[in-house]
Every structure is written in C-alpha cells, then in structure tokens.
TrEMBL record:
Keywords in alphabetical order: ATP-binding, Kinase, Nucleotide-binding, Transferase
EC number: 2.7.11.1
Group of enzyme by EC: transferase
Coiled coil: none
Name under which the protein is recorded: Serine/threonine-protein kinase PknD
Feature: compositional bias, Basic and acidic residues: 200-210
GO molecular function, one term: ATP binding
C-alpha cells in the first residue's frame, strides 16, 4: 500500500510554471505502475495543481491502432462522465504526439479487494481483523453504488470483479476499469473489445494443484469481461445484455468475499464456462461453514447468481437495499 502525500506550503505558494509542454510532457516524475495487453498506467506529478496523478495510455506498439485508440478514448470519456463518489475522477483527456490517446485521473492509494481476499484466505490475522465479513460487504455495496449510478445513465460495466474494486487507505471504495463497458445506443459489433485473461488463483486447500494452473483466455475478443465473473449471457456472447449481467458478476464477488472461495472455477476455461451456465453451486455457508456468514446472505447471493436474468435482482438498487439489511 502507498500513503497519501503531505500537503506542503512549498507546494502551494510558487507561481504557475511557464511555457508548459503540451500533452503528457506537462507531467513529471512518470513512473510505471502497471501494464496490460494494450494499456500502460503510470503515476506522475502535475506541476500546475501540485498533485500526484495517474495517467493511462496505450502501449507504444498499440498507440496507432485505430480500434485501440477508440477503445481508450471511450473508456476515458465514460470514466470522466461517471461522476460519483465510487468512481475515479478524470482530470484531463488528450492525444499526445509521442504516447497517443491518454487520460489523467486521481491517483488512488490503497489496494484492490482481491489482494485483501487473498490474505484472508491465507489466514492473515491482521487482515481478518481489519476486514470482517460485514466490512467486506460494505466494500461491495460501494462498488454496487457506482454500478447503480452507471446503470441509471445507460452504462453496463461488464467486468465487475474484486481486482477492479479498489479500497482506499481512508475507507473509500472505487470501482475501476470501464474499458469494456457497454453504452446503450452503441452497437457491440462496432465496439472494440479487448481480450480477457483468466488469472491463476490459489485455492488455499489445493495450492499448486492442476486446477490452479489456468491458462490465458484468447477468445479473439468475443466475450468482454473476465471468465470467472461472467454472467451466462456473457459466456453465450449475448449482445443484448443489461444491468442484470453486472448483478450476476456482483453476486460472484459476494460469494467470494463470503466463502473466500470462487463459485464457478473449473479445471479448464471451458469447464468454468460450463459451470457458469449450468452448475448449481453450494450456498456460501455450505461451502465455507467456518466463515462468519450473516443470516440472509445465502439467499441474496443465490438470487444474484441465478442462471436466467429474470430470476435475479432486477436492479442494483434492490440488491443494495438487501445487502444493507444484513447484520
């Protein structure tokens, strides 16, 4: 985890810098934070505002790819228009001569929910104490609040998972990565879709087993999202998905944070997809009876991960209401 920088008088009093370069050249102290198949995330310092920011751009080999440029620009615009306490603020969007399309966001300190769940699975006492079951449910509620806001504005996230739920050092919860979001009125056929990755995950009871050695999904961009958290309609490639697909993915996250187990993981990607579409998994309290699972959580989880969308919660607000009632 990183700490928030201290505000110093020396950083507030100087005059504005003169003759600032355009684009990313305006920023200094660039440092790589993470990279994916097409994108690069860097931290940087903005001499005008005096704050540390995060800059997302394309990898050098992708910066001239028209589809990837369009996808990056869409992600930047969606993120910037979703102004909510549980989404990340966007400060600037631009097209840099050297780096191509980029956008500048608030630099968030903290860690993602998956890292927290990993430590709980390993029996880390400090993490278990800091993040009891009800606190983990509160974190998911924060992400669901962002989703409810997005759904009201015609945006479906399509990649809800613990890695995209960021928990700040001061308790804030941010839902990240709107790179494969669906916007109502946009035909999916014309949307650039990035490939998804099924990352190896460790089951504490079967560490190192064959089931954990999962491979990368190279589905040719046919299924936006991450396999372990996809809804059945995503697996089927249904292009008419709606907010109930995000509700399913949120339900998978709920199952995982309650049971500290993934509900649908198979030995292969195809088996994982088949489990999502057909397997009736044990309830969280049955899967992990030793965990402190609140009464009523099983029913909420089961309703979220129903195979058919009509059997799930029909709105994120209804799910949030029931989660808040858990004790």
């Amino acid at each position: 985890m990183t700490t928030e920088p201290t505000i110093l008088l020396s950083g507030t009093d100087p005059d504005l810098p003169r003759d600032l370069p355009a684009g990313i050249g305006r920023y200094s102290r660039l440092r790589e934070m993470a990279r994916g198949g097409t994108g690069l995330l860097r931290s940087a310092f903005d001499p005008v505002t005096g704050r540390t920011v995060a800059i997302k751009s394309l990898l050098p080999e992708m910066k001239k790819d028209r589809a990837e440029r369009r996808r990056m620009l869409r992600e930047a615009r969606i993120t910037s228009q979703l102004q909510h306490p549980n989404t990340v603020p966007v400060y600037d969007i631009g097209d840099d001569e050297a780096d191509g399309i980029y956008f500048v966001m608030k630099r968030i300190s903290g860690e993602n929910l998956f890292e927290i769940l990993k430590r709980i699975a390993r029996g880390d006492e400090e993490t278990i104490k800091r993040f009891p079951t009800l606190r983990r449910i509160e974190i998911l509620i924060g992400a669901c609040q962002a989703l409810a806001y997005a759904h009201a504005r015609g945006v479906i996230h399509r990649d809800v998972k613990p890695e995209n739920i960021w928990v700040g050092n001061f308790g804030e919860v941010i839902l990240l990565d709107w790179g494969v979001a669906k916007v109502w009125g946009h035909a999916d056929d014309n949307e650039p879709i990035r490939q998804s990755v099924l990352k190896p995950r460790v089951d504490p009871d079967h560490e190192g087993s064959a089931e954990q050695r999962m491979t990368t999904l190279t589905g040719g961009g046919q299924r936006p999202g991450t396999p372990l958290y996809m809804s059945p309609e995503q697996v089927d490639g249904n292009r008419g998905i709606d907010e109930r697909s995000d509700i399913f993915s949120a339900g998978v996250c709920l199952y995982e944070l309650l049971a500290i187990r993934e509900p649908f993981r198979g030995a292969t990607i195809d088996e994982t997809f088949d489990n999502i579409k057909r397997k009736q998994v044990p309830l969280p309290s049955e899967r992990s009876p030793e965990r402190d699972i609140p009464e009523g959580a099983d029913a909420i989880t089961d309703r979220c991960i129903a195979k058919h969308p009509s059997h799930r919660y029909q709105s994120m607000r209804a799910l949030i209401s029931d989660l808040r009632d858990l004790r």
